[in-house]
Design goal:
With about 270 residues, the chain is α+β, with helices and mostly antiparallel strands. The protein folds into two domains: about 40 residues; about 160 residues, Thrombin, subunit H. The chain is built from three helices and twelve strands; from the N terminus they run H-H-H-E-E-E-E-E-E-E-E-E-E-E-E. The strands form two sheets. It has a six-stranded antiparallel β-barrel. It has a six-stranded antiparallel beta barrel with strand order 6-7-8-11-10-9. Strand 6 and strand 7 form a beta hairpin. The chain starts with a helix and ends with a strand. The mean pLDDT is about 80.
């Protein structure tokens, strides 16, 4: 081992001595050749360093990523709200188009009205609309939507009226069954809970044998409701001691009334 170290030292001293013995021109040539050998390695290392530096600059801190995520969440919620608004507007537009189409084709003279008040304690009994005798409205006029019968007017003021709903037990409507000679009286039934009262049709014959889905229409008897207004569909029929009895699914969704028509008479 000592011999190897001595030999290496001798070689190093000889090389150093040779460099000193050479002139400046030869020394520069040797340095140039050595630089040419290691230049690709230096260049490669420099490129790697630049790439690492660029990657470090491109990386975001955790706080920056968190702030950006929060901003994206807020933007997403805003887009969801806008999307929901557009869907609501589309639904409203379609509903108004249906109402306008119904008004144009109806055989009755109709006055459009908007529901302006509804008391929670009488939710299934009455509503108030923004039309009164100044618009030609009188008491005992049918109130409908494009889907069917809502009820009738009762108290009428100049620019407002109270409407008695068909779900109220005091609103009695003479009706018949489509495709049948059966007739009866449709009205609501009093309930002790806040749920929607039952709509029923009474005074049917015991042999009526009504089937679920059969349409119930106003018969025109009594003079208040013209014939042919859709009231609802049969849900169930049963025979009682004195008559036939049917529960009815109302044609109109009474839970969310917004716009209605008051029937003034035939066109």
């Amino acid at each position: 081992m000592r011999r190897f170290n001595i030999l290496a030292l001798v070689v190093f001293l000889v090389a150093v001595g040779g460099l000193f013995a050479l002139g400046p021109g030869a020394t520069q040539k040797i340095q140039s050749g050595f630089l040419g050998i290691i230049a690709p390695w230096l260049k490669s290392g420099s490129n790697v360093e630049r790439r690492i530096t660029a990657i470090r600059k491109g990386l975001k801190t955790l706080d920056e990523l968190e702030a950006e995520n929060k901003e994206l969440l807020v933007h997403n919620k805003e887009l969801q709200a806008v999307n929901q608004t557009l869907r609501d507007l589309e639904t409203e537009n379609n509903r108004l188009r249906r109402a306008l189409h119904y008004r144009e084709l109806a055989a009755f003279q109709l006055v459009p009205a908007r529901v302006i008040a509804r008391d929670a304690s009488t939710w299934w009994n009455t509503i108030k609309i923004d039309r009164g005798f100044a618009d030609g409205i009188e008491s005992d006029m049918p109130v409908v939507t494009e889907d069917g019968l809502v009820g009738k007017t009762t108290t009428v003021a100049r620019n407002a009226s109270t409407v008695l709903l068909i779900s109220d037990e005091n609103c009695k409507v003479a009706c018949g069954i489509e495709g049948s000679l059966e007739q009866g009286i449709v009205s609501g039934e009093r309930t002790s809970s806040g749920s929607m009262p039952i709509i029923s049709m009474r005074f049917l014959s015991k042999t009526a044998n009504l089937q679920p889905g059969q349409k119930v229409l106003t018969s025109g008897v009594g003079g208040v409701y013209p014939s042919g207004i859709f009231v609802g569909g049969v849900k169930e029929f049963r025979v009682r001691e004195l008559d036939g009895y049917a529960t009815i699914v109302p044609a109109v969704d009474l839970t969310g009334l917004e716009d209605v028509f008051v029937v003034l008479g035939k066109k």
